[in-house]
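User: Sequence in, structure out. Go.
Assistant: Echoing your sequence, followed by the structure tokens.
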Amino acid sequence: MGLNVFDDRICELGEGPLWHPGRQQLFWFDILGNRLLSRSDSDLIEWAFDRHVSAAGRVGRDRLLIASETDLFTLNLGCGAKERVAALEADNPVTRSNDGRADPFGGFWIGTMGKRAEPGAGAIYRYYKGELRQLFPGITIPNAICFSPDRRHACFADTALGKVWRVRLSDTHGWPVDAPELFLDHGRDGPNPDGAVIDTSGLFWCAEWGSARVRAYDGAGAPVRTIGLPTSQPSCPAFGGPDLRSLFVTTAREHMDEATRASEPGAGKTYAMPDVAEGQAEHEVAL
């Protein structure tokens, strides 16, 4: 079996896929549509918001921690109740949230960026046990936030620069130590690193915006496997399914002209491919 459409609802900017192991359910976002999407068997599920939302971490079985353009808040998946956890650049109307993921220590990393990708307007933050701390400022398009299976490293990218960094984490609370080291450098004109995830063997699976592919890299940064997509703007991969071996990929139509949209009718849909590799279970956020 090859790549299939998992969900044919069109997202202008699909992002943030999260497989919830406790619910056996995929969640993802349409950032520009202010929507959280999911499905349960044949039932299509959506939540609408009054602001951009982009990434989530699981909090137990029935809540998600969601990043928006102004805050981090919890959403009760049963009753829809929301509760603010922390402000996130709430006084800066230029920026919104972008890529994010829970870390192995119970923290949650989230990137911000300018709504028009203003150079250097964004940053990467970490929420951990009640504290939201800025980690890396001056980032234009933060992406590829993911964590090694041995808990020793985090990765993150600035898509605008075509660069991915790796940073060592402390053994106790998971805060970054030392300076980030360059992991991949595609340059401004090379493949654009967007969302990414690391499997249990340590391979770094990166959606490469504009390249119609997700590519896996080994620890030395060498490409070892490529999965092609029928649309040019894949945005983020996630492992899921009962055995965590299926690869889900969100895509986008943002910035496409009408001719390109017509030639890529699959743009904005969410895809799945079974039996790709063994993924890590997404970590739980400790509020």
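User: And one key feature?
Assistant: The CA atoms of residues 252 and 268 lie 4 Å apart.
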